[in-house]
Automatic annotation (TrEMBL):
Keyword set includes Signal: yes
Keywords: Amino-acid transport, Receptor, Signal, Transport
Membrane-traversing stretches: none
Protein's recorded name: Receptor family ligand binding region
Transport listed as a keyword: yes
Gene Ontology annotations of biological process type: amino acid transport
Residue span, Leucine-binding protein domain: 46-371
Similarity section: Belongs to the leucine-binding protein family.
Provenance organism: Paenibacillus naphthalenovorans
Length: 389
């Protein structure tokens, strides 16, 4: 009897160990996420990332993926024995449908504890409700449109909203160039671009600028001659462009080609080095606000830039920086919950985030889970983004 009982105990211990090792994930009192206690006190947490990794905005996704992976390597090393994060990456191609499929897979099949991304605001508007319904926290690292956090209390972002960034860029540009009149052009089928345009227009009104015209295009367009010719005829003091990098850069290029030589002020879509590639010399003088500059004289920032350059052979842009911070925010919150798979515990911990010292600035969430942050205004000079003076 005694022996059988002993065997039974051993057997069940072996079985539970096998279970833990086999699945790597024993649901730990969760609401659906499959995190684990690895048996040695180490939490294992699965995080999903949904990114624009192929197609016309792939450089955004690539930068984000690199930022996330750099952070992941550092965190798993630093937190050995305490927390191991597994990252599951999904490519949405910048499409809402694909983003929804990816979110469903991550939530129901992979049982992630939280999601980072998706890249575009439009995609977040599509999957934020899916994540909220499944009580899965989702952290936007590049969603800057108005209304993102109104989706629900599981939706967070560490990306500075355009409603903060755009007025900062407009303020310095208007003062420096004595701008009195303005024209606008934006992508009408992209939530981010539409939202950015609305902010530009409202800010211009507040500043007392005269609106000399609004033109639109669709993502995927390559010919902007008609719209820009009309704008040129109206003779504005400045052109405001709300677009993703591919279309935005082509707009800038065409504007210069037809001799529309006024200051151009853009939004967050321009914060990627692809702009310099695609627009080339035409990008000179472009003005944009960003929460991150690799030139910032800050030890934390310079450490990150150095490590990123060593690993990827180039400087990080703001998409890489916010992704890097996003992974750190997730890890910090997971360490505090100490429950690898508990989605609600992670959500509640994220909501408490205060004074996180990231490479894209100090971060606290406001009551709407938006970041409080200060942008820097940059401009293109001799083929590089430099601080606007
Ligand atoms: C958004 C953005 C884009 C520029 C991300 C690539 O800010 O969609 O909100």
């Amino acid at each position: 009897m005694r022996q059988r009982k002993g065997m039974g105990t051993v057997l069940s211990a072996v079985l539970s160990l096998a279970l833990l090792a086999g699945c790597g994930a024993q649901p730990a009192a969760t609401n659906g996420g499959s995190g684990a206690e690895a048996g040695n006190g180490e939490q294992v947490a699965k995080i999903g990332y949904i990114g624009f990794l192929s197609g016309s905005g792939a450089a955004y996704g690539e930068a984000q993926k690199q930022g996330l992976e750099l952070a992941l390597t550092e965190l798993n090393e630093a937190n050995k024995g305490k927390l191991k994060i597994e990252l599951i990456t999904e490519d949405s191609g910048g499409k809402k449908e694909s983003a929804i499929n990816a979110a469903n897979k991550l939530i129901n099949q992979d049982k992630v504890v939280g999601i980072i991304g998706p890249t575009l605001s439009g995609e977040m508007f599509a999957i934020g409700p899916v994540a909220s319904e499944a009580e899965t926290p989702i952290l936007g690292i590049s969603n800057t449109a108005e209304g993102i956090n109104d989706i629900g209390e599981y939706v967070f972002r560490n990306s500075l909203p355009e409603s903060v960034a755009i007025p900062a860029a407009m303020d310095v540009a208007v003062k420096k160039h004595g701008i009195k009149t303005a024209a606008f052009i934006y992508a009408k089928n992209d939530d981010f671009s539409v939202s950015g345009f609305k902010t530009m227009k409202a800010t211009a009104e507040k500043m007392g600028l005269t609106n000399l015209g609004e033109e639109t295009f669709s993502n995927g367009d390559v010919d902007f001659a008609a719209q820009l010719t009309k704008i040129k005829a109206a003779n504005p003091d400045a052109l405001f462009v709300s677009a993703l990098y591919k279309e935005g850069s082509l707009v800038v290029k065409k504007a210069r080609e037809i001799g529309l030589n006024v200051p151009i002020i853009g939004g967050n879509g321009f914060n990627n080095p692809q702009v310099l590639e695609i627009a080339g010399h035409a990008a000179e003088g472009l003005i944009v606000a960003t929460p991150f500059s690799p030139d910032k004289k800050d030890e934390n920032v310079q450490n990150f830039v150095k490590k990123y350059e060593e690993k990827y052979g180039k400087k990080p842009d703001q998409f890489a920086a916010q992704a890097y911070d996003g992974m750190y925010i997730m890890a910090q919150s997971l360490l505090k919950t100490n429950k690898g798979g508990d989605r609600n515990a992670l959500r509640d911990e994220l909501a408490q985030l205060k004074d996180f010292n990231g490479v894209s600035g100090k971060l606290s969430f406001d009551e709407k889970r938006n970041p409080i942050g200060v942008p820097v205004v940059v401009t293109v000079k001799a083929g590089k983004f430099v601080t606007f003076e």
